[in-house]
Amino acid sequence: MAASAQNLRINGDRLWDSLMEMAKIGPGVAGGNNRQTLTDEDAEGRALFQKWCEEARCSMGLDQMGNMFAWREGTDPEALPVYVGSHLDTQPTGGKYDGVLGVLGGLEIIRTLNDLGIKTKHPIVATNWTNEEGTRYAPAMLSSGVFAGMHTQDWAYDREDAEGKKFGDELRRIGWCGEEEVGARKMHAFFELHIEQGPILEAEGKDIGVVTHGQGLSWTQVTVTGKDAHTGSTPMPMRKNAGLAMARILEKVDEIAWSHAPHAVGAVGHIDVYPNSRNVIPGKAVFTVDFRSPDLDVITDMENRLRVAAEDIVDEMGLQIQFERVGGFDPVKFDGDCVAAVRGAAERLGYSHTDIISGAGHDACWINRVAPTAMVMCPCVDGLSHNEAEEISKDWAAAGADVLFHAVIETAEI
Ligand code: HGY
Ligand code: MN
Ligand code: MN
Ligand code: MN
């Protein structure tokens, strides 16, 4: 890249202002965000992103999963675009930066190129992937998964939220169901900027994470069935307490994950007991086991051991159990050339950096299956995310976006 290009930087103030503006949409109750997928707040955030992209003279595309594409022309009509983006949907108690930094970082690249009057050979497309979080509609990364051919669109449209509302119906209801066939777009490369959502970069005093791999993920929904009964008049030996069985299984999840520490993690974040009444012994418990590891064999071992342990627990208590895999993907190795572009950019720009494996799942983990892909990470305060207190510094956001910018313009060729 020409020496003069080395000094190019994004506009950190403008990026920060846009982050704060977007954060006003779907505010949480404690300073973060609750802009869940396919809600009216999601629609509002999409409209703001589209408005900004149109102001940046992008032409907008929208596919049948609601994935948004803001296209900036390149000089070579034959050259495949470089895509850059992440997700605007948040957790119910999410932060202001998870996903949003990557979407607005992509837009900031386009805004900066416009400011500088620079044209790239390959077009550049800023992207918002629908339903990355997977909270309202499991699994996570649903739409990038359909784009990468991992799920059918019909299956995705039939996913139901806790109130029984279908994904496809809600996408149409908010008016963000496009005409474009999902996955028809071909990419020269895809880059995603994301906060680390863990403690490593901050603890090591590094500005940039060069993401070489993403750990694999497994979500198993477990349903334990016992018998509703009176908490007062039912003798202990007669009880079929699904809630108690769940508690014993949760202990096993923790034990199994610890047995593979530090390279594996496990938790249960979604729990429902029925009928969830103070004086009824729960006759049913439904919960999702989240196992992760960079090693697929470790994930498989944790899944198998959990099933055996859970079946032993329910057999002993005279209850029934069902398992349903509701999400997951194998560990991911990102594209060597794209990772080198990220690492080279951090080096040239003088940002401290370290190679890192992503603990969280990202749209890049699926897009990596259909296009050369890499990620840039920036630190977050106390490694905290999926919490309204999620926080980053303006400098970290700007450093991450600068590295993203240089990796993208190197790949898109200025
Ligand atoms: O679950 C994940 O890792 C991502 O935040 N959806
Ligand atoms: Mn995210
Ligand atoms: Mn997230
Ligand atoms: Mn090229």
From TrEMBL:
Residues 215-312 form the Peptidase M20 dimerisation domain. InterPro entries: Amidase_Cbmase, Bact_exopeptidase_dim_dom, Peptidase_M20, Peptidase_M20_dimer. Zn(2+) 2 binds at D98, E133, H386. Zn(2+) 1 binds at H87, D98, H194. Binds 2 Zn(2+) ions per subunit. Its cofactor is Zn(2+). Keywords: Hydrolase, Metal-binding, Zinc. It comes from the Bacteria. The keyword Transmembrane helix does not apply. Belongs to the peptidase M20 family. This is N-carbamoyl-L-amino-acid hydrolase.
